[in-house]
Amino acid sequence: MKIAPANTLRTLHVLTLLSHTCLYQHLTATVTTTTNYLKLFSYKFRTHTARVSRAITAQPHAQNHRAASSHETEFKMGEKEAVEVHSKFRSEFLQVLRSRRTTQVPLTVEVAKPVTNRLHQNSPPSIDEEIMKSCPKANIENLEDLLEEENLYLTIEEGEQGRLPVLILSLKESHKQKRRPAVVFLHSTNKYKEYMRPLLEAYASRGYIAVSVDSRYHGERAKSATTYRDALISAWKTGGTMPFIYDTVWDLIKLADYLTQREDIDPSRIGITGISLGGMHAWFAAAADTRYAVVAPLIGVQGFRWAIDNDKWQARVDSIKHVFEVARDDLGKGAIDKEVVEKVWDRIAPGLASQFDSPYSVPSIAPRPLLILNGAEDPRCPLAGLEIPRTKASQAYREFHCIDNFKFIAEPGIGHQITKFQVKESSDWFDKFLNPQTLIVKL
């Protein structure tokens, strides 16, 4: 099957740094196209603040009316400026993503077979699977019989990494119902799309189209246990690819092209989440592509520049240490230091520790609903390094009069690990904003 390219184109022992609830209204496209690959959206929200403003302007007193009009003018200016800043960020980020692309080809879809031999790259199975199984499920007795599985390849560009493996779970006969919300789930380092299956099954049971993909150099896109490591080292030496975050973000833009054209998916209700590296992929994909309407990265959001400036980069570097060791030797250093770290980031992910870092990319997700879930003791995502992006994001959501759409939670006593609490909170977040209506299917 071939499809045409897409048209040109928001408690409980938990430290909640920013927590609100909100009223959400369906999305409408109002911003004009700026690229050939992406349709930028401005989202209209119905908030308590907006209703209060209307009540004030309805007062008969001219002074109140002038004050309210002045407030509304200031709000509109702030919102307009925010849209311009976010659009500029996306334009610059997309330029970098395109800068190392191989030849583009028409987006095509090929039916694939389920994967039987799953490849762990230097990383044995962890307890994450049991935690993911705690995700809320609909009470459907014969759920396994009702699940429909699709295995696909999307061809998005030339080259061995240009074929994107996709796994989709949904309830059978859902295509006969109205369009459903979808959520994309992204795995962590050295894992694969099938690893996310417990979450896919849980969300599918609740009426979602649940989607997962293999990140670049992972899963079906890996040839050996060192494929990802080798790709990082090659990127450092040649500058030919961007295997850390960026190339997979490009894949997720192309995935959005496909998902928005499916007849069973509501294109205005597509969410994205991920764990660790997958959380980074979700965060940057949402910053780059506004078609991801609801976002919930887990243990992924961090401050790369802050970590360098405050000598807190070690834990993140250790997660992909081989490339930094090679860079250390190439630069004639006796040890990995902040200069080595900065040069590696600039080489394999340009702008990651500067103009595309979290203080700039996280606010660009506004006003779409964004839940950031981290561990308060996570050395890879130091909490202090998120104070600036959290503050800037809060300001951005205020400019859109939708502060309720942003929530940041740092779970006390938790390091770099997912928890049942995080799984439940993110599940509730998607249910709240994407509002699925679970299908009761009888075969």
UniProtKB/TrEMBL annotation:
Organism of origin: Cicer arietinum (Chickpea)
Peptidase S9 prolyl oligopeptidase catalytic domain residues: 203-301
Highest taxon of the lineage: Eukaryota
SUPFAM superfamilies: alpha/beta-Hydrolases (SSF53474)
Alphabetized Pfam families for the sequence: Peptidase_S9
Keywords annotated in UniProt: Signal
Residues making up the signal peptide according to the UniProt record: 1-24
GO molecular-function terms, A-Z: serine-type peptidase activity
Signal among keywords: yes
Annotated protein name in UniProt: Uncharacterized protein LOC101504608
Biological process annotations from GO: proteolysis
